[in-house]
Design a protein that fits this description.
By secondary structure, this protein is mainly α. It has two domains: about 15-55, Orthogonal Bundle (Arc Repressor Mutant, subunit A); about 60-205, Orthogonal Bundle (Tetracycline Repressor, domain 2). It is built from twelve helices and no strands. The relative contact order is 0.11. The model is unreliable at about 1-15 (pLDDT under 50). InterPro entries: DNA-bd_HTH_TetR-type_CS (IPR023772), Homeodomain-like_sf (IPR009057), HTH-type_TetR-like_transc_reg (IPR050109), HTH_TetR (IPR001647), MftR_C (IPR041347). Keywords: DNA-binding, Transcription, Transcription regulation.
C-alpha cells in the first residue's frame, strides 16, 4: 500500500483541482463571478488553461463542485439491486436518500452559500437549471424503463420532477442553514418522503 505524497509539512499534496477551486473562490469574491475569467483562475492557481479544462468544463462547475461529486453517484444508486427491488417511486426516493447520506457534510456548494458575495445573479439560475435538467433526464429515463413507458410520458416526467424538486429544495435549505445545518440526509429524507407517498398512492404502488 503506497502512501499519499506529502509536502514538507507532512500534509498530503493538494490536487490541481483543489488548487484551482481555491483560486476561483478568491477571484469570484474579489471580482465577482462574471468579472473572473478562466485564464485568471489558471494564472492564480499557477497552472495552464489546458490544465483547467482537464478538470472542469467551465467556471460554473466550480460553483457546484461539492454537489456535483455527490450527484455523480445517482446513476449507481439507481442501479443498485436493493433499490431496483423496490417499487418505482420508492426506488427513486431510496436512491436520492442514499446519495444524500453519502455526501460529505463538510462540503457545501458555493453557489448556495456565496451567491450574493460572488455576485452570481442569472449565472446561478442558469448553472443550477442545467444540473436539474441533467438529473431530471436521468431519473425520468429510469422511471420510464421501470414502467415500460417513454421518458417523455407523463408519469416519468412527474415522478422525476417532483422528487428532484423536493430533494433540491432540501439541499438549498440545508446549505443556507449555516454551521448548525447537520447532515444533508436529515434534510433530504423528510422532504422527499411525503412527496413519494403521494406519488406512490397515485400510481397504485
Amino acid at each position: 500500500m503506497t502512501s499519499t505524497p506529502a509536502g514538507r509539512s507532512g500534509r498530503p499534496r493538494r490536487s490541481s483541482a483543489e488548487i484551482l477551486a481555491d483560486a476561483a473562490s478568491e477571484l469570484f469574491l474579489e471580482n465577482g463571478y462574471a468579472g473572473t475569467t478562466v485564464d485568471q483562475i489558471a494564472q492564480r492557481a499557477g497552472v495552464s488553461r489546458a490544465t483547467f479544462f482537464n478538470y472542469f468544463a467551465g467556471k460554473a462547475d466550480l460553483l457546484w463542485l461539492d454537489l456535483d461529486a455527490s450527484l455523480a453517484r445517482l446513476p449507481e444508486a439507481l442501479r443498485s439491486p436493493a433499490v431496483r427491488e423496490l417499487p418505482v417511486v420508492a426506488s427513486v426516493q431510496a436512491a436520492l436518500v442514499d446519495v444524500a447520506r453519502a455526501h460529505d457534510d463538510e462540503r457545501v456548494p458555493w453557489a448556495l452559500t456565496q451567491a450574493e458575495a460572488m455576485r452570481l445573479g442569472d449565472d446561478l439560475v442558469a448553472s443550477g437549471a442545467a444540473r436539474f435538467v441533467a438529473q431530471h433526464q436521468l431519473v425520468a429515463a429510469y422511471v420510464a424503463q421501470r414502467r415500460g413507458e417513454r421518458p417523455d410520458d407523463v408519469w416519468p416526467q412527474v415522478v422525476s420532477s417532483t422528487l428532484l424538486a423536493a430533494a433540491g429544495a432540501a439541499v438549498v435549505s440545508w446549505a443556507r442553514a449555516g454551521i448548525g445545518r447537520g447532515p444533508l440526509v436529515a434534510s433530504v429524507e423528510p422532504a422527499v418522503a411525503p412527496v413519494a407517498r403521494g406519488l406512490a398512492a397515485a400510481l397504485g404502488e
